[in-house]
Design a protein that fits this description.
Blueprint: E1 7-13, H1 15-26, H2 30-39, E2 46-52, H3 58-65, H4 68-71, E3 76-77, H5 79-89, E4 93-95, E5 100-102, E6 107-111
Antiparallel strand pairs: 1-2, 2-6, 3-6, 4-5
């Protein structure tokens, strides 16, 4: 995927990293931590977090990954749920006195397949 001209960056998050990140974010929530104990296994999928150069390129990347050759590896894409947000905030620029802030959005593909 790195060779696609629309792709600026791809980040891989393993199932273990996803669990670690979840615990870091919600470790104070006893109910959620108890739920993880009850489940007894790591319920998180590995994921690819994809960043494009422009908001208009996310659709092309999603189309590429929705090809039949990738369907056995991808369980879920959140592009359709996030495309409105991407359109609203991608590269929204704010100028402060001495600061320049750029907001960027990503979307992910999730897989329970160990080959992912």
């Amino acid at each position: 995927m790195d060779e696609l001209p629309e792709v600026k960056e791809v980040g891989y998050v393993s199932r273990e990293e996803a669990m670690k990140d979840f615990k870091a974010a919600f470790g104070d929530n006893e109910s959620l931590m108890k739920s993880l104990e009850v489940v007894g296994i790591n319920p998180f999928f590995a994921s690819l977090n994809v960043k494009a150069f422009s908001k208009d390129q996310y659709g092309k990347i999603a189309d590429y990954l929705n090809k039949d050759s990738y369907q056995e590896l991808i369980d879920h894409s959140n592009y359709n749920q996030t495309k409105e947000t991407i359109a609203k905030v991608f590269f929204h620029q704010f100028r402060g006195e001495d600061r320049y802030v750029v907001f960027e959005c990503r979307f992910g593909f999730y897989s329970g397949d160990d080959r992912f």
